[in-house]
Amino acid sequence: MVEAEARGRVPIAVFASGTGTNLQRLMDVEQEDQAWPAQIRLVVSDKPDCLAVARAQRAGIRVFARQPRDYPDKAAFERDVLEVLRECGIAWIILAGYMRIIGPTLLEAYPNRILNIHPSLLPAFPGRHAVRDALAAGVRETGVTVHLVDEGIDTGPILAQTRVPVDPGMTEEALLERIHRVEHELYPQVIRALLTGRLSEKRREWD
Ligand code: GRF
Q1: Where, residue-wise, is CATH 3.40.50.170 in the chain?
Q2: If residue 166 lies in a helix (H) or strand (E), which one and from where to where?
Q3: What residues line ligand 1, using a CB cutoff of 6 Å?
Q4: What CATH number does the domain located at 117-194 have?
Q5: Nearest-CA residue for atom 10 of ligand 1
Q6: How remote is the CA of residue 207 from the centroid of ligand 1, in Å?
Q7: 20 alpha carbon to ligand 1 midpoint, in Å?
Q8: pLDDT tens per residue, range 112-171
Q9: What pLDDT does 149 receive?
Q10: Mean pLDDT of all residues in the chain?
């Protein structure tokens, strides 16, 4: 796939619900790197007050931030999201700390075009509390996974994983910080490889 070269930067939407450090990293790479293949045209959030939304607004990026509870159901919320995604010509959805399961409306509109980053070595520790769960299980090593999104909870095809060591007695905060540092390197690398058609050659390096 040579989308990036053929049509300029590939339009992407980043979905976030939290602090948005991964979003920030992707915005920074886009600013700093001439050869970066993506353009964030939209940030979608289910939490209008979150820091990720503030970061996007500060950067002048279009934001769709609404509470799903203001809609009759998930499908109605996602139909509204989809309308804006289409308006913006979005080719890929990049989840970066988006704390909701993606429903059929978006999965069918973007088959194998939704990417997620998760703070564990999947299939170990899926779900919301991956870092806490890894510490509670007493593992010596956890990690970061980038995968395509399917209808399950953190179950789609894995594209890349990086290991992160866990020190004895480490706090959740310290481990999260270590994981974030890895995420901020790995996510841009995977997105670059994916959008420039170099995923298979890069994959060996991440294993
Ligand atoms: C990251 O740890 C990511 O793996 C998980 O949610 C967290 C988001 O962090 N899915 P941030 O909002 O990007 O700081």
Answers
A1: 1-111, 117-194
A2: none
A3: 16, 18-23, 52, 96-97, 117-119, 183
A4: 3.40.50.170
A5: 97
A6: 21
A7: 7
A8: 999 999 999 999 999 999 999 999 999 999 999 999 999 999 999 999 999 999 999 999
A9: 98
A10: 95
Max distance between CA atoms of the chain, in angstroms, equals 50
118 is a catalytic site residue: yes
C-alpha 53/C-alpha 51 separation (Å) is: 5
pLDDT tens-digit series, residues 27-55: 999 999 999 999 999 999 999 999 999 99
User: For the range 137-143, what are the long-range contacts, defined as Cβ-Cβ under 8 Å and sequence gap of 24 or more?
Assistant: 139/166, 140/165, 140/166, 141/165, 141/166, 142/166, 142/175, 142/179, 143/179, 143/182
Q: How many whole angstroms separate alpha carbon 97 and alpha carbon 1? A: 27
DSSP, collapsed to helix, strand or coil, labels residue 157 as: coil
Angstrom distance (rounded) from CA 140 to CA 135 = 9
Fold topology of 1-111: Rossmann fold (3.40.50)
Centre of ligand 1 to C-alpha 205, Å, is 23
